[in-house]
Amino acid sequence: MKFRLTAAMLLTAVALPAMADTGAVLIVANEDYQSIRDARGARAMVQAEGVLQQAGFDVDIATDVSANALRAALSGLSETLRTGDDERVIFVYAGYTVSADHGIWLMGTEARSPDFATVESYGVRLETVLALAGQRQGGAIVALADFGFPENAAGGFRGGLPPQITVPQGVTLVRGPAAGIAVFLRDIARPGVNVAQAVARRSDLRIEGFTPPHLTFLPEGHQPPPSADRNAEDRLAWQVAANADTLAAYESYLANWPNGIFAEQARNARQRLMNTPERIEQALNLTRDERRAIQRDLTILGFDPRGIDGIFGGGTRAAVGAWQGANRLTQTGFLNRDQIFELAQQGARRAAQLEEEARARAAEQERADRQFWRDTGAGQDEAGMRAYLQRFPDGIFSAVAQQRLDQIEADRRAAAQARDRAAWDQAAQTDTIAAYDGYIRAFPQGAFADQARTRIQQLSRPQEPEVDEGAARAEEDLMQLPQFTRVIIEQRLAMLGLEPGTPDGTFDRDTRRAIRRYQRRADLPVTGYLTQPIVARLLTEGVLNLLR
Question: I need a surface site. Which of 16, 173, 184, 495 has the fewest CB within 10 A?
Fold first, then answer.
């Protein structure tokens, strides 16, 4: 919640001192709502303060206020009218409104879609505002810049003002878009301007209530009361703006004091705030897909954004800052256009480099695969095929070797005696060196003796670290890959010659084998399950391939 000058007095319901001003003005501009879309453009009403003050009005502004704060502001204005001698009053509201058969509400910044139980807590009745303005019959204007309501109202409520509004006697109500209301306020601040004609000049404005044909809000020849110390007012206004140190505060100061003592300082401060890294990135209006592309580039370059979801949270900001530091840039965590282009180029170069490295590893792996297959008998020797499968479980000839071994096993089992086969089954089920030694001692010429000796050699070798398959599967499941993404990944694996089977989005045994082959090529832990960096690389490599 932000206020200008004496607005804080309004919100604590403290009476303003009576002044011999032209009149009292309260401007409420609600733009930044907490739970619904912002009402962009509502704060344009703030720019009317300068011309109204120059005409002698005592102007108070409240921006982004809740329903309770708005009630307090109206209470303060009521006290001002009761104790002061102001002949005129202007109330301006810009923001969201809702209406029903039993009332109209000006919504505070905490507003959500209302119902009969909550509407009074979300907004202030327009009837209350009109009754307050009615204390100055013939000298009261209520101006509404209606933004409707951004959500579907239900339960008898409608977004925006109704077609007809009952206006009390002596009160003039003007409604329309923010731009039209701003022009109208500037017009009536000039002495001798006819109110109805000021409205008629704008096709987007509508006037209701008290509209005599010759009504002028300020009489011809009106002069605002002289200021006792304009420099003191200028310094006070600057102090308020400097203490707030916001873009809106400096713009308000310049609107009221365009040639003030501190105008140059205000312009420099405004420029400083407009050029913050956050605002520069915000002005780019990056789409969700563009944000995902940035996160993919960061991932490929080794800066983990903790997700490729198009949402720039703490992980992405930290990754951006780390990338900026690595490139000797100021570590702001926010990107400008040039940095996004540079990041994309680096990502493309790294992706191409990774693809080339993977291609080279694949070629080397294929050469070693074929050579080992030839060295172990090219599928003509049982021990050689088992050695091949031990070295290349997902190799080029793995299916052929396994099929031949299965046939050898079937033939061997068919020719073995029942006792021999039973002893072998028991040893294989136990699967220990002692069990296979026992089998060989009992059947030194048995049908499975060579197989038992091979298994003893395998069990005697140092065991490779076991892969935590459950953790790998859980990490893949956590990504919740959409069906179309899974299909693209299978298509990419097929393009790489890794034989993932039919690209249908179902990760079957063939797909898992293809993933293991890809992990070996990329010199990554071989699990058969995907990780976020692997997904980013596969998707990026696929895009690069399409662009060739």
Answer: 495
Cα–chain center distance at 394:
42
pLDDT digits (tens, 9 = 90+) for 5-15: 333 323 222 23
- Could you give the residue ranges of the DSSP H alpha helices within 12-95? 49-54, 67-83
Assess contact for 109 and 33: CB atoms under 8 A. Answer: yes
- How far apart CA 544 and CA 351 sit, in angstroms, is 8
Question: Rounded to whole angstroms, what are the CA distances from 502 to 490, 499, 509?
Answer: 8, 9, 11
pLDDT 10s digits, 524-534: 889 999 999 99
State both tokens at 98: 């809702």
Burial 49-76 (b: 16+ CB within 10 A, else e): bbbbbebbbbbbbbbbbbbebbbbbbbb
Least confident of 83-87, 173-177, 441-445, 504-508: 83-87
User: How far is 154 from 139, CA to CA, in rounded Å?
Assistant: 37
| Angle in degrees, CA 125, 131, 134, rounded to 5 | 150
Q: What is the DSSP letter of 194?
A: B
pTM, rounded to two decimals: 0.44
Look up tokens 């919504």; give the residue.
107
Q: Is the pLDDT of residue 505 over 80?
A: yes
CATH classification for the domain delimited by 2-226, as one of 2.40.160.10, 3.50.50.60, 3.40.50.1460, 2.30.42.10: 3.40.50.1460
Residue 97's SS3 state is strand
Instruction: Look up residue 108 and give its two tokens.
Output: 């505070």
Round to the nearest angstrom and report the end-to-end CA distance of the chain.
54
Q: Which two tokens stand for residue 348?
A: 């493309």
Numbered ranges of CATH 3.40.50.1460 in the chain? 2-226
C-alpha atoms less than 13 angstroms from C-alpha of 333 in its C-beta half-sphere: 9
Question: What is the pLDDT, as a whole number, of residue 229?
Answer: 57
What strands, in cross-sheet order, belong to the sheet with 57-63? 2-4, 57-63, 23-29, 89-95, 140-146, 171-176, 206-209
In this structure, the number of other CB atoms found within 10 A of the CB of residue 222 comes to 15
Q: Tokens 């907004």, residue?
A: 123
CA distance 402 to 392: 11
User: Average pLDDT of 89-117?
Assistant: 92
112-137 pLDDT, tens digit per residue, is 889 988 989 999 999 999 999 988 88
Q: What is the residue whose two structure tokens read 């969700």? A: 288
Percent composition of the chain: helix, strand, coil (DSSP 3-state, to 5): 55, 10, 35
